[in-house]
């Protein structure tokens, strides 16, 4: 589905009484400035008003950020955004104040003949006060203003059908809201009536998707579906999540209605067919929106301080901030808690949501709202880039007691990799490549979706047309059917088998038990990643996959591959949640297996075996400038010293002791990071093994003695296959690094007749 479980129903409401309400138009005036006003610089900004032609009006000095006005500029001249006056019934091309226009229309009670008739909202709110709009301000893109501050809007009558409900049942809190089926080519939009601190009143209309009026598309996370607030939809009291309620309240205007698209209200979540159809329109819906409003949630954990810090690092006017000023701002942020507030902001659930990438990818303009503050999307992205550029400074900055917490490193990682940086990178290079689908699946794997089928459906909108056309969005299909279709499509379109290596079986994932062993469970987020993609291996050279499915259900896949060896002995498995001691103990155990295998060999043979061992457990990733011999010496030097520092009770053998005091370019304070980066990250979720022919390997922690090592044609790495049953079938276990067999050696041997090609049926 496009989103999560439904939260609303539709009642047949008593619209006749609502439509008979008398619209009250009060005299309105510009907001009275509070104390210590700050005059914001003039800029043109198309506000989030959905259906109407807009003209920028004189700006109000009141800040929509709603800080205390005595300090409204904030640190670093954090200025409020201007607020244009808005009213909902303009005459196309007119430069007359929209407020004055509406007052005149109310006084004469006539409709301007030049204005197309539209289904006017029956709702009104007579208690308008001087609210500061959260929806007005600078151009959200950070680009120069457009050549005109007048925006031509599609006439409403040509784009909007009748309201979705025209029944006249009595009003009741218990009446559910029932959706009218969508006409072909139409989408629903929510019209939010003007108001402030009253129940949100809406009506749902249908609009032709090829000729929609201007609207705001909301990008948000549903949050707790059990925590709801009620809104009024055409007389029905409809519960929506607190998260969506906050977003609608932030977008609601005091003086005019606004059109909004929000999935929870605009899609009948109980209608499976409609959800399937809507998913295919999501990219178009967000692309057609005048703006996309990101809603991060309500003010919490000093989020306004975080937004202010972001605005100083990346001002909305795109002003360049020199590195020395960035360093000063970060230093102040560490002292006053702004950095910790940003950690909380960048760690919010919104950034983990799968659909975000598609919604932002297609947007014309994006604003990010958090509570009563907002900034352009570009400010968030630029500030995130600042954090990455100054990562060393953030890591070692210790000013302020809050940044000396034990989890400081985690906080810094959140600043560097959280927020906008946590979203998949969808560059043209990725999207236009042959392997675009697999690349995007990998990049978005850590993103969260309630429906596991959305791991595919939620990314289709960013992919090229030829990939989108390869799939039919259908929520009646099982998760197994959807995920197996991904494997089939990728094998057929790329003639490669790399997709099966994304099926990670250690630690055990119970959700994968219902899938064939070669089908990745995209709803599972493994901490161990496929080797081929990470390190650029080409174990099968440039060969193409030779394979076929054995049945229509795609439960069995026959592949062709070259058998290399069979696992004989395995070491202790390194888990995915490990500390320094775990890596060191695994190293000792793995090395003990090696020394037992080379016992009685010459010193030179043992030395070469130790070099091969270190190269193997680092997956062949030797730092530039080191040969195998020097790499082994430096690695043993670091490991031996870490044993002496952390595990004094563990005795070292003569070889390790001899490396304690050798010259090394790795300073003591960098030893732990050296081990983590070059060994720990590559050992997690894996184990060391020796094969029957004394080859060294590191592969899936799920491996067992007897597993067969095979290089499939069209696969970047060797894989582990486990014989099962009496039909000659195999279970896919995972990928494996085998010394000397990562760059085509098996294929070379097969082509000269030294090895044979076999068929393996995976289930």
Please report which band the strand proportion falls in: under 5%, 5-15%, 15-25%, 25-35%, 35-45% or over 45%: 5-15%
Proportion in helices = 25-40%
Measured between the Cα atoms of the first and last residue, the distance is 28 Å
Provide mean pLDDT, rounded.
79
Morphology call: globular
Strand tally, please?
A: 18
Q: Main β-sheet: number of strands, strand sense, barrel status?
A: 10 strands, mixed
Radius of gyration over all CA atoms, rounded? 31 Å
| Structure class | alpha+beta
The low-confidence parts are 1-172, 398-409
How many individual helices? 25
Written description of the protein model:
This is Heterokaryon incompatibility domain-containing protein. It is a single chain. This protein has 25 helices and 18 strands. The N terminus is likely disordered. Among the domains are: 120 residues, no CATH class; 179 residues, no CATH class. It is globular. β2 and β3 form a beta hairpin. The protein is an alpha+beta fold and 763 residues long. Strands 1, 2, 3, 4, 5, 6, 7, 8, 9 and 10 form a 10-stranded mixed sheet that branches. Strands 11, 12, 13, 14, 15, 16, 17 and 18 form an 8-stranded mixed sheet that branches.
